Amino acid sequence: MEHIKLTEQKISEHYFIPDKACTSYGKEGCCWRISPELGEGHYWIYYHKDLFTINVHDFFFHDDIVLTFDCPECISVSKYDSISGEELTPYRHLQSGIIKTFIGGGVYKCLMHKNIPIKAIGIEILPAYYDHYLEEQYPAETIGLKDAFTYIDQTDNFPEMARLLTQVQSYRGDGISAKLFYEGKVSEAISLVLERHKKALEIEKTPLSKQDRDALIVVAAFINDHYSSDISLEQLSHIACMSISKLKSTFKRMYGTSITEFIQARRMGQAEHLLAATDLTIGQVAQSVGYMSASRFSVLFKKSSGLLPLEFRKISKK
Fold it and tell me: Which GO terms of the molecular function aspect are on file (predicted)?
């Protein structure tokens, strides 16, 4: 497994190569092709001064690879259509079909699995936009913008944002119409995040108590140890000493995901390992991670990775 530390200089000089012949994306951006030694595919970037970027990723690596990024200050929101890997700082399974946000500044480290396409669309908002332009225009309304983006992270229930990012990904205009389109979509994305966070704060006016937080940590640890078993909400509510309704709402507040989604993410991470590293049948893999129905497992696996289990196994073992 190779370990690559990506910087802007390395991107431009070695790992990614400018590809002016690429016409698959918006005409106003810059297209890069991944070095043939590392993988196949492209990523496309549209820069709007020092305010924001639009990013489209569509490539894969030939081998498992650890990437380390020195991340500049930024706020981003992305949608993955296909992904297989783990964030390592802190550890978290990457999955498709969700809206993911990221707050830059510091080192970001991730493991990407070989041959699995990384297909994503993202908007990256830079400090000149949120620390200067937005604060000058809307000084009161944009306080807590980073908190709002952090709250959104890892949700699969944000259809408005999914539609917006899909529209951006599909757009092929150029000239001033493209510039105005991208500016408008960035403003719309920020407004969607702020509005969603505002509604959440109205519901969550009181912070979680230390007792509740400690109980939820125990619940999460129990799930991590017993994810392949048939875990019921009744069982978890007894462990947490909470009612089921309170457990569901407080778990969502603390971990940003439902209990069902948390269990599924743990199961799919293990399923990816079994598909790539063993010769177990799909049915056996399904049962190993807690699903009696191979068809149900296949549906959920495709939602998580963007690929059916057999497709994932075929390209992960190349």
Answer: DNA-binding transcription factor activity; sequence-specific DNA binding
